[in-house]
Design goal:
Glucose Oxidase, domain 1; binds zinc ion; 17 strands; 8-stranded mixed beta sheet; Aminopeptidase; 2 domains; 5-stranded mixed beta sheet
């Protein structure tokens, strides 16, 4: 499907571009999965051609991941990334480029080691989950209490794990839309609380991921206020397998782990904003974005350097085309997404009493750089415009609901209409939150297709005489 989507896009408009609407006819996949019809205006055709021929997002993502690298919310590196974004946004020609700052608590990773002490002593590959408390500096050594799934822990008796290190396994299913993530993520978010309720002193989980490499996956966890806070970390998938095989031998297994992360007080983060000011309705805003922060283990290429590249790259394509949008096109690089959507909430807070009610349509790219394969609508009226966006890209509409993306969710809750290009992400959770999330994983043709999709969305939302709010 991936190469089909790209080649269809590149070869459409074969019938010439002289009509107001270009109908490049029907194409069907050889496996007859889907029939797609591409219909485009001359303007959209121009945007798609510029996007597909260029390396806009690819270059922006390369620059961010090379010149900044890892950039955890609140860190000095994230601050440098904001300066990078201001410079990059100005370089590509965006107007009114600015940082909207906010403060946030900052969590820093420390030392992280683990080993099976008995019966078969050996080192394991582990990483702290974001927000975890530390172990004592000399580490924790205890017997493992094993739960094949998070559900098994949740349904276990309310005590009986006193002095134990809980190990929660459970595999995440691969899916193009990442549907396995939500269920698999329960143990990451809530595992420490459920284990502490039953007397445990620490937790290790099988990483929330779909790979079999020896990289653990980090990600944010949460404590419940009235429950004791115990340290929690993730094992790489092969290490979780190793620990399971060891447990199957029926002997007591003991583990030693040392984690020294810490909360370092309040730091500054911020959202970086730039725009192309509309010619006829400058106070009406079409918003696209991604998140500027990343986890610290990789260089944040697929999560979410690509999203910054795609949204800024799409604005760059519109500027290159010479087309003048009627509405204002706003690009937002959200800060501190990974640690709790802090930039997204700060954006709503900063704009609620000013222009949030004039946000016409919003979307985000935060699912890697795989090709868009369908379109989801989250508007209350004017869905025909969303369908035009899908048609222009040769993509089917999805029945599924959307909140526009993680950083768009809070503004969607405040009534901002949204849409989303669903990206092919079967392999996304092989890399997600690991040291393996690096620039070499970005395919230039696939990320260019996303730029084409975003430029199409921005242009059509800008030109449509449509109120997507349905008021
Ligand atoms: Zn992300």
């Amino acid at each position: 499907m991936r190469s089909f989507l790209i080649s269809l896009l590149a070869t459409s408009c074969l019938l010439g571009c002289s009509d107001a609407k270009i109908d490049s006819g029907e194409a069907s996949q050889s496996n007859s999965e889907a029939k797609v019809k591409t219909v485009r205006s001359r303007e959209v055709d121009k945007l798609i051609k510029i996007a597909m021929a260029g390396t806009h997002a690819y270059d922006i993502t390369e620059s961010l991941t090379t010149e900044i690298g890892p950039r955890v919310g609140g860190s000095p590196e994230e601050a440098k990334a904001r300066e990078w974004a201001v410079k990059k946004f100005k370089e590509i020609g965006l107007q009114n480029v600015r940082i909207e700052p906010f403060t946030m608590p900052y969590w820093e990773r420390g030392i992280e080691t683990a080993a099976i002490v008995s019966p078969f002593p050996q080192q394991l590959y582990i990483t702290s989950l974001g927000g975890s408390v530390a172990t004592p500096s000399e580490g924790i050594e205890a017997e493992i209490a094993f739960f094949p799934t998070f559900e098994d822990l949740k349904t276990a008796p309310e005590s009986g794990l006193e002095g134990k290190i809980v190990f929660i396994s459970g595999r995440m299913e691969k899916a193009p839309d990442g549907a396995g993530y939500g269920p698999a993520n329960q143990k990451r978010r809530l595992g420490a609380t459920e284990a502490a309720k039953r007397g445990a002193i620490a937790v290790v989980i099988r990483s929330v991921g779909t790979d079999s490499h020896r990289f653990p996956h980090t990600g944010m966890m949460r404590y419940q206020e009235d429950i004791k806070k115990i340290p929690i970390a993730a094992l790489s998938a092969p290490d979780a397998d190793q620990l399971e095989r060891t447990l199957k031998r029926g002997q007591k297994v003991s583990l030693k782990m040392t984690l020294t992360p810490k909360w370092s007080g309040d730091r500054q983060s911020g959202n970086v904003i730039g725009q192309i000011t509309g010619t006829e309705r400058p106070d009406e805003i079409v918003l696209v974005g991604g998140h500027l922060d990343s986890w610290d283990l990789g260089t944040g290429a697929v999560d979410d350097g690509a999203g910054i590249g795609i949204s800024a790259g799409a604005a760059q394509v519109i500027l290159e085309s010479g087309l003048k949008p009627k509405r204002t096109l706003r690009v937002v690089a959200f800060g501190a997404e990974e640690v709790g959507l802090l930039g997204a909430y700060a954006y709503v807070k900063a704009h609620k009493d000013t222009d949030l009610d004039r946000h016409v349509l919003a979307t985000e790219s935060d699912f890697g750089a795989g090709p868009a394969y369908e379109v989801k609508s989250g508007v209350r009226s004017g869905e025909h415009v969303i369908r035009d966006m899908a048609n222009a890209m040769g993509l089917p509409m999805s029945e599924g609901a959307t909140n526009g993306g993680p950083d768009i969710g809070p503004m969607f809750s405040e009534g901002v209409p949204v849409m989303r290009f669903q990206q092919e992400g079967t392999d996304y959770f092989d890399l997600h939150h690991t040291p393996d999330d690096t620039f070499d994983k970005i395919n230039p043709d696939e990320i260019a297709q996303n730029v084409a999709a975003f430029a199409t969305m921005m242009w059509l939302a800008s030109e449509a005489d449509t109120d997507f709010r349905g008021q």
